[in-house]
């Protein structure tokens, strides 16, 4: 059994970094109100399950917790949305809105990917995680991450090229195109 | 487009790029909210409903977290705690449904294994929870009524619980020993989590004994205070309190009793109330709290 004071202290040491990172993680994926709720929820789960984090890197583990907490929040949002719809016959169920990206082409290219692939790309580019860290977040093997990430990047490039071509841009049709 | 270009383009579009850093007070509030939840819990924890019992036993195992503080603490912060447990439940509930969740919504592979609850646990967990509950109740019954049952409820009882600090006390509460001055014993618990902000209402609700006193002697783990004023409970001349650690969350001010200083101390069922309910009389806000509560 870990000494509670010791545990507290360790948690307090890593918590600021975890808060900052998870806050950014959530800001990239949901609206501010939901982000606030999920941040608190994530911290609670991290605090309760802190002993598990010690095997390895805390941040990817915390991202993993945040991911599940966010999925939970989104699920209940959807449930509420459906209920509202049923009650008022009012529009389609709302989904938690993801924040708008300044780069519209990129945003639509990301939307064109399968959600799992888009998430891989986000974890790679925004959270700046290595494949093995991404594997911790998602609970899959590092090998699988490498392969999927590689494909996801290719797909994203492909989508970007498509939109660029449609808009008559020239720049991104360089050599690699078949 | 190379990987680097792609990454650079993605980073330029990062919605969190201009996110201001969190305000320090917000961070500390988050931490406070989080860490007031009793630290648990071996992994694959028992169902949340057993949490109070489990943490109670964990506490006595990890030192002396006498029943009193958390008995009252439990009532005091019970509501918020249960709220938190509720959310905790959804958290662990999520882990149970993690796989289906990730299958359906966040279509990302199975939940990390550490979240997955393994097979036949529920029955064992329920049995364990029952055991813990019985043990906790048993301990409570053993520890609690071992004093003169005729003593008024409001009198702080001499807790002869596992303490090594308050061994000496006369076994009757509040009764003068052989004509000497009345002595009351109080134990002090440790802190397992952060504290919620104290409130007069809660103090009024929880405390069955509260007094102002000056420390006359510190003898290892026992502190003797000369009582100057009793706010609540049976009047007494002298109180012996178990010396606390160094944490200001246990005892406001320096965190432990020091000879010659004035203190305000409240207790419930013989255990000192911590988390801002007891401390140096000069601590900011404490005297006001006592005035408001009693």
Task: Write a structural description.
The complex is a heterodimer of chains A (178) and B (294). Chain A is 70% helix and 0% strand. Residues 172-178 of chain A have low confidence and may be disordered. Chain A is built from seven helices and no strands. Chain A has two domains: 1-99, Orthogonal Bundle (Rna Polymerase Sigma Factor, Chain: A), CATH 1.10.1740; 101-178, Arc Repressor Mutant, subunit A, CATH 1.10.10. In chain A, α1 packs antiparallel against α2 (32-48) and α4 (104-112) crosses α7 (142-166). By secondary structure, chain A is mostly helical. Chain A has helices at residues 4-27, 32-48, 58-88, 104-112, 115-125, 131-138, 142-166. Chain B is α+β, with helices and mostly antiparallel strands and 294 residues long. Chain B folds into two domains: 31-143, no CATH class; 183-293, OB fold (Dihydrolipoamide Acetyltransferase, E2P) (Beta Barrel), CATH 2.40.50.780. Chain B has helices at residues 3-12, 24-35, 51-61, 67-76, 78-104, 121-143, 200-206, 286-293; strands at residues 183-186, 209-219, 222-232, 238-242, 262-268, 271-272, 279-280. In chain B, strands 1, 2, 3, 4, 5, 6 and 7 form a seven-stranded mixed beta sheet that branches. In chain B, β2 (209-219) and β3 (222-232) form a beta hairpin. In chain B, α3 (51-61) crosses α6 (121-143), α4 (67-76) packs across α7 and α7 packs across α8. The termini of chain B are far apart. Residues 41-119 and 145-178 of chain B have low confidence and may be disordered. Classes of the chains: A mainly alpha (178), B alpha+beta (294). At the A-B interface, α1, α2, α3, α5 and α6 of A face α1, α2 and α5 of B.
Describe the biggest sheet of chain A? none
Span between termini of chain A: 61 Å
Order of helices and strands of chain A: HHHHHHH
Q: Report the oligomer.
A: heterodimer
CATH architecture of the largest domain in chain A: Orthogonal Bundle
Estimated structural class of chain A: mainly alpha
CATH class of the largest domain in chain A: Mainly Alpha
Strand content of chain B: 5-15%
> What is the string of helix and strand elements of chain B?
HHHHHHEHEEEEEEH
What is the typical, i.e. mean, pLDDT of chain A? 83
Shape of chain A: globular
Number of structurally distinct domains of chain A: 2
Low-confidence stretches of chain B: 41-119, 145-178
Helix content of chain A: over 70%
Number of strands of chain B: 7
| Main sheet properties of chain B | 7 strands, mixed
The helix content of chain B, as a percent range, equals 25-40%
Distance between the termini of chain B: 73 Å
């Amino acid at each position: 059994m870990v000494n509670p004071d010791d545990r507290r202290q360790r948690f307090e040491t890593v918590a600021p970094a975890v808060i900052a990172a998870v806050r950014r993680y959530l800001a990239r994926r949901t609206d501010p109100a939901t982000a606030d709720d999920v941040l608190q929820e994530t911290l609670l789960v991290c605090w309760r399950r802190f002993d598990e984090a010690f095997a390895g890197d805390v941040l990817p583990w915390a991202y993993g917790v945040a991911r599940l907490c966010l999925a939970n929040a989104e699920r209940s949002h959807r449930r509420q949305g459906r209920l509202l719809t049923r009650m008022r016959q009012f529009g389609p169920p709302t989904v938690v809105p993801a924040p708008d990206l300044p780069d519209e082409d990129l945003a639509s290219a990301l939307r064109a990917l399968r959600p799992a692939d888009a998430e891989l790309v986000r974890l790679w580019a925004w959270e700046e995680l290595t494949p093995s860290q991404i594997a911790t977040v998602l609970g899959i093997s590092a090998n699988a991450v490498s392969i999927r990430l590689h494909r996801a990047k290719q797909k994203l490039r492909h989508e970007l090229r498509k939109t660029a071509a449609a808009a008559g841009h020239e720049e991104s049709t360089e050599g690699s195109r078949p | 487009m190379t990987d680097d270009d792609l990454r650079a383009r993605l980073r330029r579009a990062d919605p969190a790029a201009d996110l201001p850093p969190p305000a320090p007070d917000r961070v500390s509030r988050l931490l406070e909210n989080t860490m007031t939840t009793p630290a648990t819990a071996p992994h694959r924890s028992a169902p949340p409903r057993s949490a109070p019992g489990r943490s109670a036993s964990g506490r006595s195992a990890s030192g002396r977290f006498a029943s009193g503080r958390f008995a009252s603490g439990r009532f005091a912060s019970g509501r918020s705690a249960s709220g938190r447990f509720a959310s905790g439940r959804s958290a662990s509930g999520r882990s149970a449904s993690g796989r289906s969740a990730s299958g359906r919504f966040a279509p990302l592979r199975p939940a990390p294994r550490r979240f997955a609850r393994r097979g036949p646990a529920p029955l064992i967990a329920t049995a364990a929870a029952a055991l813990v509950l019985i043990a906790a109740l048993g301990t409570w019954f053993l520890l609690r009524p071992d004093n003169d049952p005729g003593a008024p409820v409001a009198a702080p009882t001499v807790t002869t619980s596992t303490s090594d600090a308050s061994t000496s006390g006369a076994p009757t509460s509040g009764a003068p020993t052989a004509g000497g001055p009345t002595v009351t014993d109080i134990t002090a618990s440790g802190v397992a989590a952060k504290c919620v902000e104290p409130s007069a209402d809660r103090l009024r609700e929880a405390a069955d004994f509260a007094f102002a006193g000056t420390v006359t002697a510190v003898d290892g783990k026992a502190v003797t205070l000369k009582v100057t004023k009793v706010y609540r409970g049976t009047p007494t001349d002298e109180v012996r309190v178990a010396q606390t650690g160094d944490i200001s969350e246990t005892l406001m001010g320096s965190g432990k009793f020091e000879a010659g200083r004035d203190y305000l101390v409240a207790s419930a069922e013989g255990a000192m109330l911590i988390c801002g309910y007891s401390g140096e009389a000069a601590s900011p806000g404490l005297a006001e709290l006592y005035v408001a509560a009693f």
